[in-house]
Predict the structure.
Amino acid sequence: MRTNLEIVQECDNFPYPNLTNNTAYTKAIEPLWLFFLPDDLEPHGFLIQSVVDRMPWTPSFRLIPESKQVHLLKYPGRKEWQTACNEAIDELLDLTRAKKAFPRLGKKRDEKFPIVGAKFDIGIERSAMSLFGIIGQGAHMTVYTRTSLGEMKFWIPRRNANKSTYPNMLDQAVAGGVAQGETPFECIVREAGEEAALDEEVVRRDVVAAGTVTWFNVSDEKAGGEVGLMNPGVLYVYDLEVGREVVFKPVDDDIQAFHLMSVDEVRDAMRNGEFKPSCAAVMMDFFVRHGFITAENEVDYVEIVSRLHRKLPFRTSPGF
Amino acid sequence: MRTNLEIVQECDNFPYPNLTNNTAYTKAIEPLWLFFLPDDLEPHGFLIQSVVDRMPWTPSFRLIPESKQVHLLKYPGRKEWQTACNEAIDELLDLTRAKKAFPRLGKKRDEKFPIVGAKFDIGIERSAMSLFGIIGQGAHMTVYTRTSLGEMKFWIPRRNANKSTYPNMLDQAVAGGVAQGETPFECIVREAGEEAALDEEVVRRDVVAAGTVTWFNVSDEKAGGEVGLMNPGVLYVYDLEVGREVVFKPVDDDIQAFHLMSVDEVRDAMRNGEFKPSCAAVMMDFFVRHGFITAENEVDYVEIVSRLHRKLPFRTSPGF
């Protein structure tokens, strides 16, 4: 049985600076390389030494070992430099796959994700984001209904057994990555249609944007990719109340079944480690915002609320 | 006109660690002394040098200049040591007033506040908390109603012109410090009766606990006390929806008037700096949780949500 703080720590597992004994934080942060974009003094990613060593760096990148920095250069070609930068990343990842530098790097997919906080439009394949330790962006929607007595019940899907990441675990009703050029709100509307066949107009009318959940995670075996990578992340969280007549059914192969669960059932499943960790964090935030977890029933309340909203290590807006 | 991020920064104004240029954080943190309690390896407060210099330390305290530490000792007398520790703080503050060491230290009041995260029950006068840089605890309740068209309106009080702190500024409908031995929920129920004459049963039934807002503030002139003191703080936030028939009126001399304000009016007042900074932060958190501030209309959204929930520099639960 995990405590609520332990559930949050499963996502947010990178050490924090500490006033009296800073060893854990220093030991974790010192070996990391910083990833920089052109004309930008602030970093956008963390690379670990073994990634820097194995990556087949092209001339578009400059490594500075003394300060542990990787810079994407401004003039790798004769094109407009922003386009050239985007191509330089694609080219590097093609080469990485050709040389099989990272056997657990997923297949190339068309979906691209933005480098959050960049001063220009630059994207990177989803499966490669962790290698650069760039902030990942997702949108998660908690869907609930109320019984005739006013009790909240949650529509919770269970992931399929054949998923490469977090098989058989519980998830949010609707969740997905925010792609390049997409806003979080448009992402959740799109995913609500794709994953739960929810009517677009109903979602646009009734959904409530309710903040973010942020963390700094170091990847483990369950995530399915390379282990020990830096994964700072932000999830934009949404709440949707639906009528009692709405029934959720799996739309695609990702989900084996939808369950309608009470607060106590969700809480127990979280404690037993049945939820995908990021989804457990989003449920925890929901429970805090709606008064199910309080200062009176949770000794770690203040710590939990802060840990659910960790300040990310990199800039999250262009900040011109 | 302040941006939303600037509004949050007014409360949360102590620098953060920075990956590429840590000067501001180091310069702010290095001169601080740490305050320790007996049998506890983790600190509970930050004292600035000028406070350490002017404080008429008694033999109950030990100063270690090499590591900038102040320790409250375990055996200052022959009583049970926890009682003796409480008395040692009282005695020090009596002496401080007798010697007029801090001219802007408020009068002695009966109200005591807990040292948050201590492993035993220990309190300190409210007006002296800032001198030790201990985490301050409050409970704030945002009260709103809905027009016949479903639009939210907020009951917002304006502080009286003769208040020593933040005169004439806008405030939360109900707010107060969480006293020693009181839970945040009982605090908000008590304050709702005292400050807004709200019916206790209605508050207990309808109030929703909705998380916390946390910050690390360095005091300025407007706070009314000594300037440059360290004020880490946590506010337990509550939402209360009331019917349209409920009308708020000032109960005591603290408030000159209550206003029923729309979302836009509250937003404008925040931008113009009309709110007490901590109350602006609580309103901002409300606007985030209820979908008025979103990723689409606020470029600093992710940063703002994290800054509203800063991880406090000290332990917030006993952590046995």
About this structure: Chain A is about 30% helix and 25% strand.
